[in-house]
Amino acid sequence: MEQLSQIKNIIFDFGGVIVDLDKSATVNAFRSLGFDAEAFVGTYGQGGPFAGLEIGNITPEQFYAEIARLSSDYVRKASVQETLTPASIRAAWNKMLVGIPSHRLQKILSLRKQYQVFLLSNTNVIHWDYSCDTLFSWQGHRPEDFFEHIYLSYEMHLLKPDEAIFRTVLERSGLHAEETLFIDDSKENCRSAEGVGLQTFCPNRPDDWMNLF
Q1: Domain at 23-94, CATH homologous superfamily
Q2: Which of 30-44, 50-64, 95-109, 169-183 has the lowest mean pLDDT?
Q3: Beta bridge partners of 15
Q4: What is the pTM of this model?
Q5: Domain range list for the chain
Q6: pLDDT for the residue 83
Q7: 73 φ, ψ to 5°?
Q8: Quick one: how far is CA 136 from the chain centroid?
Q9: pLDDT value at residue 45
Q10: Helix (H, G, I), strand (E, B) or coil at 46
Q11: Considering only the top CATH level, what class is 4-21+99-212?
Q12: Which of 67, 157, 163, 182 is most deeply packed, by most CB within 10 A?
């Protein structure tokens, strides 16, 4: 990453950068319902119906139905089908979203005084609805208070690390890549962003990016 002196815009990833994640909590929550989600819940990306939800190819209702269908392939017990309701699936899926410490939210608000600040996340409608209602509600705020614009994979039908998602963000927001810093905890995503000319920072821990400013 070059010096911040030329940076006018910041694009934040969400998971592992702004919000703390615990993917094992989701795997364990699904396991308690009788469903093995470990093969589908990855460190930087999802598989199966979880991936379909993340890129916006299926609705939450289709997601719930597919999880219930897949569960019968793993465990053929009537009790499993009874516990895998839309509400229980949604709760298990949201378990990975631990929370956003207030000091990160305060920092983003302060950065908006000097930079244009954006969000670009590989996420899904279930996680985003929960985040809007719960995680960004600090001191009565809404997500729109923290970002100039919010770009979400399930709405764009694009996923990082596809370079197309970065080009789309730059084009839609009228940003110059060389003036824009992208912060993401995935090295693969950062390499892809650098391929379109973005400056990048890949934190090892969620708070690492705060030391840049």
Answers
A1: Putative phosphatase; domain 2 (1.10.150.240)
A2: 30-44
A3: 19
A4: 0.92
A5: 4-21+99-212, 23-94
A6: 77
A7: -75, -30
A8: 14
A9: 61
A10: strand
A11: alpha beta
A12: 182
From residue 144, alpha-carbon distances to 60, 90, 111 in Å are 23, 24, 14
Residue 44's pLDDT is 56
Name the DSSP class of 139.
Answer: G
Q: Which DSSP state fits 138?
A: G
DSSP H or E stretch at residue 199 = strand 199-201
Q: Which of 30, 42, 40, 27 shows the shortest CA–CA distance to 75?
A: 30
d(CA 52, CA 126): 12
Whole-number CA gyration radius for the chain:
18
From 13, 20, 184, 185, the catalytic residue: 13
The dihedrals phi and psi of 104, each to the nearest 5 degrees, come to: -70, -40
Structure letter (DSSP) for residue 135: I
pLDDT tier, 72 (very low <50, low <70, confident <90, very high otherwise): low
Q: In the chain, what percentage of residues exceed pLDDT 90?
A: 78
Active site residue 13: yes
Q: Which tokens sit at 170?
A: 């730059």
From residue 197, alpha-carbon distances to 179, 191, 200 in Å are 9, 10, 9
Do the beta carbons of residue 41 and residue 6 sit within 8 Å?
no
**Is pLDDT above 90 for 41?**
no
The pLDDT score that the predictor gives to residue 78 is 45
